[in-house]
Amino acid sequence: MSTNIRSIMLILLCGIVLNSCKSIKPSGPPSKTVVEFPREANDKSRMDENPDIEQQSKNSPEVMREFRAAWIATVANINWPSKPGLSTQEQQEEALKLLDLLKDHHYNAVIFQVRPQADALYNSSLEPWSYFLSGEVGKAPEPWYDPLSFWIEAAHDRGMELHVWLNPYRSHHTTGGELSPKSLVNTHPEIMVPLKNGMWWMDPSKEATQDHSAAVVMDIVKRYDIDGVHFDDYFYPYTSYNDGQDFPDAISYQTYLSKGGSLSVSDWRRDAVNSFVQRIYSEIKAEKPKVKFGLSPFGIWRPGHPSSIAGMDQYDALYADAKLWLNKGWIDYFTPQLYWKINQIPQSFPVLLGWWKSENTLNRHLWPGISLYHGGGAENVDETVNQIMITRGMLPESMGTVHWSIKPLISYPNLAQGLLDGPYKKQALVPASPWLNSKLPDVPMVRTEREGQKVVVSWEPVGPEEVFKWVVFYKYGENWEYKIMDRTQNTTELELNKTTNENQVALSAVGVTAIDRTGNQSSFNEIEMTY
């Protein structure tokens, strides 16, 4: 057995042991209420002459918690829409097809790019409509609709969180058509700098840049029912974008020095990014504390951290001190882009994941980004499955991964099916964020009714708090199972008897819990059934 295979097996075994010891249960106490079993639909008989059905004081059965998300990129029409200029109906049909794919494969979140180049895939008074929608900067969809509102409602109806993904400083992409008079490059030239590859970038050091980008973020937070705000790895641009030359902000730096500034140019740039990240987190929490803020920086903080790691130094190349943001807790979830394979020694996936875990001193969510672009062959399907399993073993307290991107799930059906047959076979809830909200939703009112050889379970919310999902628990014999239902559903059918190992096992208990927008689960009332 090779050293690499032996290491992987040890990591996976560790994950199995850790997860077998972990139960995720609601933190509130269950209540005990005697209820009457309702009549059948035809009202001719009861389940028996003396149904003894009681809501017992028991904790909720275990339900899996794991963040399962995919990025959906709009820049260059990578994922959606498939090309500029589609009709509203065509755009919406494509969006629903992507969301249905994620739901059918048991994902529970989508990270949707709404600002690829200082533009908007939503109705904005601050920036023009995106070129990637219509093929023309500033042109609204025809017939008019708000794509972000559509995506939010459609995602929520499918039980998925929607996080808006913004590029804070990129103002023109090479695939974004000709520069338009409506482009921010022309309407706000005072904060713009050109790059050698044809892109334009905002100067991150300028107060006007930070004020404008912060205003864009907060405009979305205030007006849209989103679950999270997400930045990726583009802070200062990669040096390749400028032909290896330094970022063209010499005038801004000299202005800073002339006012008594003493930081080196590298520290000055990092300080500008650090203050912006902290500001965004603070402003989101002041407006809507339950909206999560997530970051997905380049996967290596600095070469040599840990000692076996080699690669680009984002600290000095992108002026992104991602370790600081994690250490300070200026994020709710952290998604380093660990797009390398397990046995790629200089950038090994588990080695980097372990290092980032050691830096997560405030216990925020650590949900690494993994690449699905290794291909659809059996070896690459195994690589993806193994990375997910390693993540579960190393991060049992808050499991999750974000997949770059949704496209390989379409291009490689065997990859999508391999995930569904393997680690994503069971549905999962997004892990809760107790530092954002720890109040449990109210226990729903539950009704059970026999209809022939089925039992219909229905429920309704109690209290004013919004319920995002429901978990229906059901037990045959001594084995609990569950299914997660979205907000559009309030009833489900269960078989009265189930065949297990050639034996008929009767439905013995059910129960329903409510899940709020930050993942908190209500207390649980078990309804026992006797026949």
TrEMBL record:
Annotated segments matching region Disordered:
40-59
What keywords would UniProt list here? Hydrolase, Signal
Kindly indicate whether the keyword Hydrolase belongs to this entry: yes
Q: Identify the SUPFAM superfamilies for this entry.
A: (Trans)glycosidases (SSF51445)
Q: Where is the Glycosyl hydrolase-like domain?
A: 66-376
Question: Looking at the keywords, is Secreted present?
Answer: no
Q: Could you tell me which InterPro entries the record lists for this protein?
A: Divisome_Glycosyl_Hydrolase (IPR052177), GH (IPR017853), GHL10 (IPR003790)
GO molecular function annotations of the record: hydrolase activity
Provide ranges: composition bias, Basic and acidic residues: 40-49
Q: Which residues cross the membrane?
A: none
Q: Name the Pfam families on file.
A: GHL10
Q: What is this protein called?
A: Family 10 glycosylhydrolase
